[in-house]
């Protein structure tokens, strides 16, 4: 392990060096010149023959003395806004612009202050900034005679409407899900948490994609060290492309060689808002409807937004169900193989008859049989995801009938194997976060079971447990609150205690403010104080 | 210490180039530790054996008979044919399926294990004993010697201690051929039959473990239920009847059904029993549903030891074949008395039979050993004689808690 760590460290060092060099090259501030023509030439030279670049040259002011040009990328900018709020005031209203009848305008800031009726206007002075503004959908106004320009926010590209999340559906919760648009996403969170303490830090990652990445956290709740650590890791990334949140996740996760994910994600604003309120930080990557949340604990594999919406008895039963499904999908094939090839004495006699009857005439050993069915299932699963929707029907028919029934009838596999793999498959979908890890570990355990029986399963389980307890996610212990044991945090694990009883935030996350509810007021439903008095009086 | 360890480790990894060692010392150390752990783990565990289900011959019942050659025994292993289990009992025309769901394999040799090995010469599958349900000794073999067969099954890792032990009146192999409608396999039928005996307490339920404990105690005589094959309706059916009594590893005699019930009452194993008593009006059946027994040796003033046996039974009227109202108090008292007498006579009949066999089936010796170890040391040498003479006080209490679902008998016009 140490060896690998060294390797990684070396990579990181190299990356840092490379990044520095690149930064030197790319961010060499090439300031704008006073001549409009020179500036336009420079911009068109950078963009080359890209046909979506629009350079609108015009003149304004009294008698149209002042030459100017507006550049933007077609399709990225909001055309009505450009027409009505930039070009129209300049070309039409500036005729009544009285102060500089003789001298023209004194500074480019004056245009912003008095003419442009657009919300977000910034003064920029380098070519790099001009390009950046264009590429993010803004319009840039260059005026002859000034060595700076106006970056007018006119972002307006086509975007998907907010819709119900596909991956995490709930019965009683809110129906909105994140979209690909970063600002929409932050707005959705702002609407959930109307507190100025919700801070949003922005970063640009990817030398070429220049992807907007926002870090969200609750100031006063989240541990400042956590935010620093996230920023440090994000800044260390020196790749040229971040196309989705998953890219980012792989660059900043704690255990890149582990099968377990140490960064949680969600498509639901209410889920992410909940994480923020627990003292976690969220990372939104522009262009991905999945928002990352760190630190992640192992138990988060089994938590869903619905758990907190329904009442605690049912939520606890569902938690228990999910944990059992996790264990089933991890151990069922391994246990089947171990029991049917090593420990026949542990099978109840009448069940043994049934199993023996179905293994009569089956050509393969139980382990091979199980492996075949597991492999088939993985193929079916992958096919179901990748296949074009219209042919989806075919897969379920082929999968259910051919693979299941016919294989048993033809005597290629025994019926118990099909049942075991079916329950394994169904169970693995119950906890979607862990299903990647499960589908890998299942194979390991199955092979151990095939070679050493239940002894092998015990070894494998121990190895998994040791690994889990050694994992960390952004300085939080992954397997907390079980190891290290923190009894107070157990309220939101295998059982989900009533919300009013969860008076503190999870200690495992080391939040700055531990108190979620007022300790002083004892909860008394009869008195109607509701327990949850909030932090503010 | 540490330096030494490092030195040893240097020596051990001499084949590796020194710079490599220096650079990845920690890494190599960890790899070595991991390797050692793996090797130790893989070697320091119990034996195991990989075997596929369809290479096993699952044995459900075992019978031991006297072999046809001198000094041999014949082992019958009842092996399930799993394929036939699945295919359903009867063919479409309603008759029983032609193929039986079991096959009896026989091997004759000088010892049990040799016979088991002998069967392997005749079968492509390995005999697999953990699911063995019954172990049947023929009375012929039981009268010669039971110890060898028992030892083989007790010592083997595969065989379980909760196997039911039976003694067959005829050949054990014939019992395993019995025809039964409710089960496809005779062994399953027999073991189910034994477990079903709890409801009448007329057959002892003995597992190999109980048998071995009784045998090892030295004074207690092991018992086992007996089974006999009857011919009825053109079919051979097994039937449980009586109890075989063992002494010194040999079967010495039998108890009949009533005596067996007495034994069960005396040892507190009668969970539920049905007692029919005769009143002057006719028969009344009592069901005993709860039983408490205490067996205590007491020392008399002259130093002799007597056994005090207290039996407390709780029951109800199960059926009333008379026209008399048995819910009346004086009638209930009468029934209690009759019930007490019936139980007492069962126990005394069991005791006299045990005395005539001089076999301590009740475990009096064990009780004395626990209570009065010093006296036991004196009497254990000639326990057989002492047992024949030992005084026994039987006190039976019968409590009738209910008259069942009815109070008065069902008689014509009884509703008025």
Structural features, described:
The complex is a heterodimer of chains A (537) and B (416). Helices cover 45% and strands 11% of the residues of chain A. Chain A is of the alpha+beta class and 537 residues long. In chain A, the strands form 3 sheets. A 5-stranded antiparallel beta sheet of chain A has the order 1-2-4-5-3, sandwiched between helices. A 5-stranded antiparallel beta sheet of chain A has the order 6-7-9-10-8, with helices on both faces. In chain A, helix 11 runs antiparallel to helix 15 (415-428). Chain A starts with a helix and ends in a 60-residue tail after the last strand. Chain B is an alpha/beta fold and 416 residues long. In chain B, helix 11 crosses helix 12 (329-357) and helix 13 (364-371) crosses helix 14. Chain B is 36% helix and 29% strand. In chain B, the strands form 2 sheets. In chain B, strands 1, 2, 3, 4, 5, 6, 7, 8 and 9 form a 9-stranded mixed beta sheet that branches. Chain B has 15 helices and 13 strands. The model of chain B is unreliable at 89-96 (pLDDT under 50). Classes of the chains: A alpha+beta (537), B alpha/beta (416). Chain A binds chain B through residues 1-3, 340-342, 344-345, 349, 352-362, 365-366, 452-453, 455, 459, and chain B through 24, 26-27, 30, 41-42, 45, 48-54, 56, 58, 60, 80, 82-83, 85-86, 128, 130-131, 133, 158, 160, 188.
What is the strand tally of chain A?
A: 12
Helix content of chain B: 25-40%
Task: Count helical runs of chain A.
Answer: 17
What is the succession of H and E elements of chain B?
HHHEEHEHEEHHEHHHEEEHEEEHHHHE
The secondary-structure class of chain A comes to: alpha+beta
- Rg from alpha-carbon coordinates of chain A: 30 Å
Biggest interface: chains and residue counts? A-B, 26 and 29 residues
| Helix vs. strand class of chain B | alpha/beta
Q: Which parts of chain A are unreliable, with pLDDT below 50 for 5 consecutive residues or more?
A: 530-537
Summarize the main sheet of chain B. 9 strands, mixed
* Spatial extent as radius of gyration of chain B: 30 Å
Mean pLDDT of chain B, to the nearest integer, reads 85
The backbone outline of chain A, from C-alpha atoms, is elongated
What is the CA-CA span between the terminal residues of chain A? 51 Å
Task: Report the biggest beta sheet of chain A as strand number plus sense, adding barrel if it closes.
Answer: 5 strands, antiparallel
**What is the number of helical segments of chain B per DSSP (H or I, 4+ residues)?**
15
Beta-strand percent range of chain A: 5-15%
N-to-C CA distance of chain B: 101 Å
Major sheet strand order of chain A:
1-2-4-5-3
Strand content of chain B: 25-35%
């Amino acid at each position: 392990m140490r060896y690998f760590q060294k390797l990684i460290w070396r990579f990181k060092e190299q990356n840092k060096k490379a990044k520095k060099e690149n930064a030197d090259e790319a961010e060499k501030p090439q300031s704008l010149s006073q001549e409009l023509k020179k500036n336009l030439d420079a911009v068109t030279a950078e963009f080359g023959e890209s046909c979506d670049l629009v350079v609108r040259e015009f003149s304004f002011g009294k008698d149209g003395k002042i030459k100017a040009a507006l550049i933007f990328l077609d399709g990225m900018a909001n055309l009505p806004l450009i027409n009505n709020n930039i070009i129209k005031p300049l070309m039409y209203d500036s005729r009544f612009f009285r102060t500089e009848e003789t001298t023209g305008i004194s500074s480019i800031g004056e245009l912003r202050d008095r003419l442009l009726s657009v919300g977000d206007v910034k003064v920029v002075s380098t070519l790099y900034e001009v390009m950046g503004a264009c590429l993010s959908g803004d319009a840039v106004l260059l005026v002859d005679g000034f060595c700076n320009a106006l970056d007018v926010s006119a972002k307006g590209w086509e975007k998907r409407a907010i819709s119900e999340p596909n991956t995490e559906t709930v019965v009683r919760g809110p129906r909105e899900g994140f979209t690909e648009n970063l600002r929409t996403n932050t707005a959705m969170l702002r609407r959930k948490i109307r507190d100025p303490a919700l801070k949003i830090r922005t970063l640009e990652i990817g030398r070429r994609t220049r992807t907007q990445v926002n870090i969200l956290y609750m100031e006063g709740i989240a541990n400042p060290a956590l935010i620093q650590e996230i920023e440090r890791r994000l800044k260390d990334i020196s790749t040229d492309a971040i196309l989705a949140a998953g890219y980012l996740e792989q660059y900043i996760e704690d255990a890149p060689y582990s099968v377990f994910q140490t960064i949680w994600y969600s498509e639901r604003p209410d889920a992410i808002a909940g994480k923020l309120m627990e003292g976690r930080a969220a990372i939104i990557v522009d262009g991905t409807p999945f928002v990352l949340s760190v630190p992640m604990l192992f138990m988060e594999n089994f938590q869903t937004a619905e758990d907190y919406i329904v009442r605690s008895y049912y939520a606890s039963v569902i938690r228990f169900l999910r944990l059992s499904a996790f264990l089933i999908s991890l151990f069922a094939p391994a246990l089947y193989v171990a029991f049917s090839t090593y420990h026949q004495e542990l099978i109840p006699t009448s069940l043994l008859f049934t199993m023996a009857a179905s293994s009569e005439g089956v050509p393969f050993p139980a382990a091979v049989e199980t492996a075949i069915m597991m492999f088939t299932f993985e193929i079916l699963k992958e096919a179901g995801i990748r296949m074009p929707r219209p042919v989806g029907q075919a897969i379920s028919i082929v999968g259910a009938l051919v693979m299941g029934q016919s294989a048993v009838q033809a005597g290629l596999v025994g019926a118990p194997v099909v049942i075991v793999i079916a329950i394994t498959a169904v169970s693995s979908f119950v906890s979607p976060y862990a299903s990647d890890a499960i589908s890998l570990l299942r194979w390991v355990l199955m092979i151990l079971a095939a070679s050493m029986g239940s002894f092998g399963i015990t070894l494998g389980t121990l190895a998994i447990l040791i690994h889990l307890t050694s994992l960390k996610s952004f300085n939080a212990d992954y397997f907390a609150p079980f190891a290290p044991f923190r009894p107070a945090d157990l309220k939101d694990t295998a059982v989900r205690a009533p919300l009013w009883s969860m008076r503190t935030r999870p200690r495992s996350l080391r939040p700055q403010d531990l108190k979620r509810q007022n300790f002083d007021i004892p909860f008394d439903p009869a008195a109607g104080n509701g327990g949850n008095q909030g932090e503010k009086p | 210490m540490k330096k030494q360890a490092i030195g040893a480790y240097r020596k051990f990894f001499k084949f590796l180039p020194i710079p490599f060692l220096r650079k990845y010392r920690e890494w190599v150390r960890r790899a070595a530790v991991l390797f050692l752990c793996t090797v130790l783990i893989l070697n320091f565990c119990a034996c195991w054996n990989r075997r596929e289900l369809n290479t096993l011959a699952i044995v459900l019942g075992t019978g031991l008979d006297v072999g046809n050659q001198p000094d041999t025994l014949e082992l019958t292993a009842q092996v399930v044919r799993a394929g036939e289990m699945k295919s359903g009992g009867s063919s479409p025309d309603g008759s029983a399926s032609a193929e039986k769901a079991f096959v009896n394999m026989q091997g004759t040799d000088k010892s049990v294990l040799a016979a088991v090995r002998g069967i392997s010469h005749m079968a492509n599958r390995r005999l697999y004993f953990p699911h063995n349900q019954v172990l049947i000794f023929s009375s012929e073999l039981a009268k010669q010697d039971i110890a060898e067969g028992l030892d083989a099954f007790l010592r083997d890792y595969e065989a379980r201690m909760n196997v039911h032990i039976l003694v067959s009146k005829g050949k054990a192999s014939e019992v395993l051929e019995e025809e039964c409608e409710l089960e496809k396999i005779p062994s399953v039928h027999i073991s189910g039959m034994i477990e079903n005996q709890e409801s009448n307490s007329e057959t002892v339920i003995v597992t190999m473990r109980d048998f071995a404990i009784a045998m090892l105690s030295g004074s207690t005589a092991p018992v086992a239920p007996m089974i006999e094959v009857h011919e009825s309706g053109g079919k051979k059916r097994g039937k449980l009847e009586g109890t075989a009594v063992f002494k010194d590893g040999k079967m010495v005699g039998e108890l009949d059904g009533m005596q067996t019930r007495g034994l069960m009452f005396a040892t507190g194993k009668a969970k539920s029993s049905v007692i029919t008593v005769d009143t002057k009006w006719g028969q009344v059946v009592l069901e005993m549903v709860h039983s408490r027994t205490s067996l205590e040796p007491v020392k008399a003033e002259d130093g002799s030891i007597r056994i005090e046996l207290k039996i407390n039974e709780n029951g109800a009227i199960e059926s009333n074949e008379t026209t008399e109202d048995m819910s009346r108090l004086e009638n209930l008292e009468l029934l209690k008395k009759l019930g007490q007498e019936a139980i007492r006579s069962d126990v005394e009949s069991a005791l006299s039979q045990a005395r005539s066999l001089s076999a301590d089936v009740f475990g009096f010796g064990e009780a004395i050993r626990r209570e009065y170890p010093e006296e036991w040391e004196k009497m254990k040498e000639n326990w057989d004689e002492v047992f024949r003479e030992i005084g026994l006080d039987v006190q039976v209490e019968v409590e009738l808690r209910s008259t069942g679902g009815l109070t008065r008998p069902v008689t014509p016009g009884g509703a008025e």
